[in-house]
Amino acid sequence: MIYETLQILKEQLENYFSEIGLGKIVVLENISLWESGSEDASRLDGKVVMSLLKLEEETTLKNTPHFRIQNDKTEYKNPPVHLNVYLLISANCETYDKSLRSISKVIEFFQGRKVFTSANTVYDRTNVSFDVLDNFKFILELYTPSFEELNNVWGTFGGRQLPSAIYRIQLIQIEQGKKLASSGVITHIGGDLNDLKQ
After folding, report:
1. Extents of the domains making up the chain
2. Are 103 and 165 spatial neighbours (Cβ–Cβ below 8 Å)?
3. pTM for this structure?
4. How far is CA 116 from CA 77, 92, 122, 161, 186, in A?
5. Which of 10, 39, 90, 146 makes an SS bond possible with 164, Cβ 3.0 to 4.6 Å?
6. d(CA 32, CA 26)
């Protein structure tokens, strides 16, 4: 679900950039390739790059029931993992002013649209990874790191900074769907107090 979420966001942002005349310059790639000197680094030239920064488990939802009743049977499963995903969006355009304009347009787009659901989002359903994607809902909010945190982020990615924004994507649910056990539903308790021996 992580790839699917980021790919859907990439498609939505890329469509917006095309509509406003900036072209198809959004890529889903690791920004650390930017100064790596590898052959892949050239793919980031003139692009707005979306990179996974961090995953964080949403601990407030860990205590959800690990069973459900379906067709008069109780099915036991491990509870799903709920994640918050931190997304770094960096502008590596030809000029600094174009990079700044691109980041401004990224913020403008996500300010206008914070909630993405299967009902309000048109995406490329022919992508083979989306064959199991039925319902989704994720919410984006701008995350503002401190100067120290931002320095650590760019230090991890290789040094020099690009104009960028960090977004927190709330509540991506990952569940394998593997059933651990199944049993009948307890519908009543029989007997009475006279049946108990003292």
Report:
1. 2-184
2. yes
3. 0.76
4. 27, 26, 10, 29, 39
5. 90
6. 16
